[in-house]
Design goal:
rod-shaped, transmembrane, mainly alpha
Length: 48
């Protein structure tokens, strides 16, 4: 066979790994935003 499939396999794995990292970053960003919102709301409640 040719070398092309063997060269594509690492690229496909790298793309899949990048997608997993991006999904993790999106999840972490949403959690961080949620934490900030909760902190701001709690702070406002205690300042009243």
């Amino acid at each position: 066979m040719t070398e092309t499939p063997s060269q594509e396999d690492p690229e496909v794995e790298e793309i899949a790994a990048d997608l997993r990292r991006e999904r993790l970053l999106v999840t972490q960003a949403l959690v961080a935003a949620g934490v900030v919102v909760v902190i701001v709301i709690v702070r406002e409640l205690f300042l009243r």
